[in-house]
Fold this sequence. Notes:
Layout: E1 2-6, E2 14-16, E3 62-67, H1 73-78, E4 84-85, H2 94-99, E5 103-116, H3 133-138, H4 145-153, E6 157-159, H5 169-173, H6 175-184, H7 189-202, E7 206-207, E8 213-215, E9 218-219, E10 221-227, H8 233-247, E11 251-257, H9 259-266, E12 278-285, H10 295-300, H11 309-312, H12 319-330, H13 336-353, E13 356-368, E14 372-373, H14 388-391, E15 393-394, E16 401-406, H15 423-431, E17 437-439, E18 446-448, E19 453-459, E20 471-476, E21 479-480, E22 486-490, E23 495-498, E24 504-505, E25 507-512, H16 517-520, H17 531-542, H18 554-566, E26 567-575, E27 578-584, H19 591-598, H20 615-626, E28 630-631, H21 634-640, E29 643-644, H22 652-665, H23 672-675, H24 681-698, E30 708-714, E31 719-724, E32 744-749, E33 753-755, E34 760-768, E35 780-788, E36 794-799, E37 801-802, E38 808-813, H25 815-818, E39 824-834, E40 841-850
Amino acid sequence: MLQKRFMAVLGLLVVASMILSACGPATTAATTAPGATSAPEATEVPEVVIPNPEGQGGYLDRIAFSVVDGDSAVSQISAGAIDMYSYGLASTSLPDILEAGLSYASFYGTYYDMMFNVAPFTDTTVLNPFTNRKIREAMNWLIDRDYINQEVYAGGALPKFTPLTTQLVDYTGVIDVARGLEAYYAYNPDKAAEVVAAELEAMGATMGADGKWQFNGAPLSLKFLIRNDGDGTRLAMGDYYTAQLESIGFTMDVQYGTGSELAALWQSGTPEVGEWNIYTAGWGSSGLNRDEGSSFNQMYASNSINGLALFFANTDMDPTFLETSDKLINGDYATLDERHDLFVEALPLALQDSLQVWLVDTLQFAPFNNNVSVTYDVGAGIEAARLPVYTLRFIDQEGGTMRIGTSDLFGDAWNPILGSNWIYDNFVQTATRSSAFMPDPFTGLFWPHHAASATLTMQTGLPVATNFDWVTLDFADTVAVPADAWGDWDSVSQTFIPVGEGVTAKGKIVVTYPDDLYETVKWHDGSNFSIADVVMSLITIWEPVNPESPIYDEAQALVAEALLGTLKGVRITSTDPLVIETYTDLLYPDAELIVGFGALGWPIYSGNGSGEAPWQVIAMGNAAEAAGQLAYSQDKADLGGVEMTNLVGGPSLEILSAQLADLAANSTIPYAPTMSMYLTADEAAARYANLQAWFDAQGHYWVGTGPYFLDQVDLVAKTAVVTNFADFADSSDRWADFSSPPLADVLVEGPAQVTIGDDAAFNVTVTTRGEGEAYPSADIKEVKFIVYNEAGETVFVGNAVAAGGDGLFTATIPADVTADLVAGSGRIEVAAVLIPVAIPAFSTADYVVAQ
């Protein structure tokens, strides 16, 4: 699995990775299914006492989610209507949050861009200029990112040019290259107009007497989809960009709408139909993205793991860029220097491609009442991350119902394969699921969740190291894949295909689970976790992507390419206790990432990573898909003229219920030639009965193993309630040690004048943010500095040296570097890379260069 990203209401979530118990309250879910009844709105949930023996499950009795306009979020918290606004507000809202005296989490991880439809339109009388890479590239010069930052975000954002997050470690590692590209693509509307004119004329367009571009005798009109919800900033950016495009001769056809409304066009629609040219997109990380090597595949590639038809349409992608993005996402490098060089190669190619033109990295603020306590991810905030829902609680009471407002809900159908990956849906889904490993919200590494331990064996010489002792790392000259390991799947015989002799891998992951796994981990429908859940998840790696399968889906096949490109085999060596070996070519510098993203077995399904499900839910969905009644992906649903599989509402429920009845009537063992080795007919019958009882009580089929179960859902009112799952495997306080991230501030001070030909030393001080105390030097990985000349070009990159005390360093510009400077202005920029938290601290100092 790979690090995923979410298109925060922003848009879709991208990914490489990827949801109540019969003993729970039997409330009726409000859905759009026939005969369903309405549940109370989220802000009107009655207080109940939820049995929570010995502090199991989440801290809270219930969490009630509802849609709240961002403009009213602070006032609604102050009025007591909600306790938190989890989506996050723009930096312009911080004064209101402070004036109201509220607490808040501040975090990076959300970034905005202009996304282009790159597909040639079926109607050839209509020209789509964004099929042309040079026109897309020119769009960078048409946008003044500094203006956007100041006018829209009051200076609270960072201008963004590349897919790398400006605040994170990978950006810092290539900061000299990134800064050079930022200077080259700085605002230059005349250059943009010149390039666009030359390319449009070559494509057959002409400039009319009115200063507007024409094609086939009609105005060259661009259909621009502008989001008007969320934090409101995309509306302002969209209007600005509309004016910029009009200034170089385009006629603009603007459509405003919410995320859900516009998704029907850019996300669910077919790009070639030509319903849109540009969309005000946005993305948010699902966690602190420690390794951004997958970004180029996710954000541009024609084989993008995010599964959107838009990216698949990028067939004119530069072959070198495609090859480089494949190498980075597959870890196809032998040293860290090779990895660095791949980033250096990919960055300029990304800007030349510009399927997306990046605008800003934002600092967002999620406000909440002062009696609320929650851990937040420094790279993803609250909604998109995994850990926050596990620590969410009231400071001054046990249990209770927390009312949370967000930007939207139910942006797409919910299913565990390729269902909704909108960030707000993810927050609800995360409450209902658990996993083998838990991402660290401060470092982006992983900790064991349901797994007990792991051993990682890598090929000798590969650049991998451990950070925590729960992973045992060793090396071998050859990592041989056992001949009997599963390497593929035969959809006809319904059996795994062994890899055979002579296969090797870069790494071998061995994950061992606790002895009591099958007793302590329970599904919300009352079923105990079992080996059959694991085997079904392994079958599903290959079954939907096999053209011989009755549930074959080309969209899933494209998404699976990245995983299948690195997966060399998997083997269950013990069922009790559960021990699974995964053989992989996945490569990250951190062993914890290889294990956390690469280990197979836990039943979280492909696509967006939000879908945990027991085998009987997958069997039911597969049966509906095989019958041509439903489809997991939007693409296949559109092609087949059927509904997208939705486990929580809509027409899907009636279809799924009929399939469940058929499966139960025959005590069906799905994929019986294989699954019957792990599942009996009696066990299958019991599972189907549990799922039916669950649906009868809850009115939906969303079943997970998380600390809360989905108790109420209303697709029309856009509300959801999750309730404490008393049978959750862990105590509520398991993750309580995560509190505030140990961020830092850095200050660089030095001479006001640098003399040409002389060394110039600058003092660097790193302190703990909010405390002002010296940051322990043992917790600082490196302090990097960059020297710029009077034109803003990078002339030197160096490392500061320790200066005799915690947090103290010296950055010296060598004499041979200053000798090449010319009289005028200069600048030094410092980046302190930290160990306990993967957010570097930046600072700059200006000086005068003199003879």
